[in-house]
Design goal:
Layout: H1 4-9, H2 11-20, H3 47-58, H4 63-72, H5 75-79, E1 81-86, E2 89-94, E3 102-103, H6 104-111, H7 122-141, E4 147-148, E5 162-163, E6 170-172, H8 178-194, H9 202-217, E7 230-231, H10 241-244, E8 270-271, H11 272-292, H12 296-316, E9 318-321, E10 325-328, E11 331-332, E12 338-339, H13 363-372, E13 380-382, E14 387-389, E15 398-399, H14 401-409, H15 414-426, E16 437-439, E17 442-447, H16 452-468, H17 470-474
Antiparallel strand pairs: 1-2, 3-4, 4-6, 5-7, 8-11, 9-10, 11-12, 13-14, 15-16, 16-17
Organism: Panacibacter ginsenosidivorans
GO biological process, one term: carbohydrate metabolic process
Protein name: Glycoside hydrolase family 125 protein
């Protein structure tokens, strides 16, 4: 079965030792040769991205770090995009890497770091407009689905195991709030940078309307809503209890999410980082709707929902920890129960400043961050190779590079940022790429050798440091 879980059990870990046999660590600096596909085999080439790679790599004294950036930053364009024109409109299908399916979350995050380069490359802008157009189609097909196929008639392998309304063209139907937030984040920043409103046509507005409708349904004020999900599986994190509706919640204005951005089931359906993300996304959607379509009534509806969710977060998301004081919970149910942890996948509590949901200097965020990066977070792992956050998806003692990268992107401490980059440089297991996860004591034990989101986000970090902390980058 071609799933993320399979790579945890097979190719990722087993293949790691084989890769190491090629001595890709390149102990001598002159051996750091590109691991990118040959030019003729790349899915898409951007002149602006290539220029950025050369400019930034030349400015990084650490040759291994420069080599990692060269390999990772263009990985989404090199290997995962499928661009074409359909009915005169750009259309871009983006796979995650080793799974031939397009996640709304992953596809948004994979191309997001290229946004600042669009003004220098019209074809790159067109490619990203194509992602927005494809995501609109996906949301209109089913706002509760998280992953889709390019072939809209393809039947998913999960059709045999999942008890849910699975339509052709859908790879997986796990309801995750962030699946509807990420496309807004991508669209908003595309619009802000380019001023181009062509992708935001009547279909896009319908997709936003459907997003708001879905959020309101999952506030579950009057009923449990139309969505159910169960799976015939031995993996507890792949199924939703109580007839597929999940454990009960008290309707308080928060939005239920049956799954986390890791694609693991939530314990308590009010997933706090995803509700924060929804607030930020609804505000962005309101601004776009008001200025592009002039529909102030619908824009106000978006704003009102954002305000309602935000007020509920203030009342229900904050809990008292014995050692750390007031912190954000990861999940709550509105009855007073809560789950204290964090997961590496974004949105996470750690990532809230990155998503413009809270300030990185906010005292409540800082106290929460201190908890997340400590033994009080059951999925924070500290080993001889590195330390970082993982999650149930890859299992115990498995650190996700995503969490280390996000820790650096949200840090206000230069020493911490430097340490994060050093860990990332040391734990690629000689492959020249980031992975889904690696063992805290042995980076050779890793999952998913082709995971484009992790690669591109690492590239975003290096670009960010080059622009904002160049002296720090040069000192690594």
């Amino acid at each position: 079965m071609n799933t993320r879980r399979d790579f945890l059990q097979s190719a990722g870990i087993v293949g790691a030792g084989l890769l190491l046999s090629n001595n890709l660590f390149a102990k001598n600096k002159f051996e750091f040769t590109s691991n990118r596909p040959p030019l003729a085999q790349r899915k898409f080439t951007s002149e602006a991205v290539e220029a950025a790679i050369q400019r930034i790599k030349k400015d990084i004294p650490n040759q291994e770090l420069g080599w990692l950036f060269e390999n990772c930053f263009p990985n989404t364009l090199d290997t995962t995009v499928d661009f074409e024109m359909i009915d005169g409109k750009p259309d871009t299908y983006v796979i995650t890497g080793d799974i031939d399916a397009m996640w709304l979350r992953d596809s948004s995050a994979q191309v997001y770091p290229y946004l600042p380069l669009m003004k220098e490359d019209e074809k790159l802008q067109q490619l990203i407009a194509g992602v927005i157009n494809r995501q609109t189609k996906c949301i209109l097909k089913d706002p509760y689905a998280n992953a889709f196929y390019k072939d809209e008639n393809k039947i998913s392998e999960w059709k045999q195991t999942d008890i849910t309304d699975m339509k052709p063209g859908i790879h997986e139907r796990k309801w995750e709030i962030d699946s509807l937030c990420y496309p807004i984040r991508l669209a908003y920043n595309y619009w802000k940078i380019t001023g181009d409103d062509v992708p935001f046509d009547i279909d896009w507005i319908k997709a936003i309307e459907l997003t708001v409708t879905t959020f309101k349904e999952q506030q579950r004020k009057t009923s449990e809503g139309p969505y159910i999900f169960q799976r015939n599986t031995s993996w507890a994190t792949d199924g939703v209890p109580l007839s597929g509706y999940g454990y009960p919640v008290k309707p308080v204005g928060l939005i239920c999410s049956m799954f986390r951005p890791s694609d693991d089931a939530t314990i308590f359906p009010y997933l706090i980082p995803s509700n924060f993300f929804a607030v930020a996304s609804l505000k962005q959607a309101a601004e776009m709707i008001s200025k592009i379509s002039g529909d102030n009534k619908f824009a106000n509806e978006c704003t009102q929902l954002a305000t309602e969710v935000n007020n509920a977060l203030k009342q229900y998301a904050i809990v008292q920890h014995v050692q750390m004081g007031r912190v954000y919970a990861y999940e709550v149910n509105g009855f007073g129960s809560f789950n204290l942890m964090d997961d590496a996948n974004v949105p996470s509590l750690l990532s809230l400043p990155y998503l413009n949901a809270v300030s990185s200097t906010d005292p409540l965020y800082q106290s929460t961050r201190k908890l997340l990066l400590s033994s009080y977070n059951p999925f924070f792992f500290k080993g001889t190779a590195a330390e970082g956050i993982g999650g149930p998806h890859a299992g115990m003692n498995m650190i996700w590079p995503l969490s280390i990268t996000m820790r650096a992107l949200t840090s206000v401490n230069d020493a911490e940022i430097k340490q994060c980059v050093q860990w990332l440089t040391k734990t690629h297991a000689g492959t020249g790429f980031m992975h889904e996860s690696f063992h805290k004591d042995d980076p050779k034990k890793f999952t998913r050798k082709w995971f484009a989101w992790s690669n591109t986000l690492f590239g975003e970090l290096i670009m960010h440091l080059h622009e904002n902390k160049n002296a720090l980058l040069k000192s690594i």
